[in-house]
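Appendix B. Raw example, untouched.
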Amino acid sequence: MLILGLLLATAISLGPYRLGPGDLLAFLMAKATGGASPLSAAAEAVILQIRLPRVLSATAVGAALAASGAAYQSLFRNPLVSPDILGVSAGAAFGAVIGIFLSLPVLAIEAASFAGGLTAVIIVYAIATAIRGRDAVLVLVLAGVVIGALFGAGVGLLKYLADPYNQLPAITFWLLGSLAAANLRDLTNLLPAVAIGLMLLALLRWRIDVMTLGEEEAAALGVNTRALRVAVIAGATLMTSAAVAASGIIGWVGLVVPHLARLVVGPAFARLLPVSVLFGAAYLLGVDTVARTIGNVELPLGVLTAALGTPVFLWLLAFSRRPAWS
């Protein structure tokens, strides 16, 4: 928590319009006590309208992706599962690209992205339910990979058909992932979805722990495995879709961060969930701060998280000897 708080203060202070730690502290004290602000109107506008929405969006997106990854990995007892596994990210991307292709307003593009993610997971789960006589988890994962590839093909087709001067750059920029356009309206759409998803996972944390023993063992202990799977997938999908709608495609957070959290607190989901949330929020906030301050041109978040996540994951793969579930 302390590291996350320091990152929040640093992220708000850094940028083209520099703010000292004392300025930020004085501003917060003035807001808390109702006194006059010591900062200029321009400095207040930078904090309240630009940096604070972006900083809070980064923490919420990071927490949502990390919590979703932890939930999927625990539910499927597979450390390689991530929020993309059920085609959620690809479906959300397809919905947003349709909105951009049709020149819809920003709010409609976010709604289309959210609807695309939910549509993808509904199709995947319907396929898994229709195919009987096979391992249910394996069919669900494979169906997610196939449907994700199908939505990815749809994105590629729309990019091919898009106006190369207006629509194609917007689609490409959005797919790379960024929080540069984050504002208070985006935050009000993102935070409720993340809060609902996290609350659902927190309420089901003990049942998810039982599921890590195996589906037959969990059923023998009285857990309705089918209903639990639906609820966990719904909560994780809600958070992932909202995150993708707000920031575009940001990979590796949901895969790498739960691994790091598992090394610290072990596989028990009751402990893994809050640590994954904190680690995910701090990780993406730090990456976003680096992305917008490292040079004169802001780096895409999707590119930076992939560049950082790949060596970290390879290190975990090579040197981690602790079993994922025990």
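End of appendix B.
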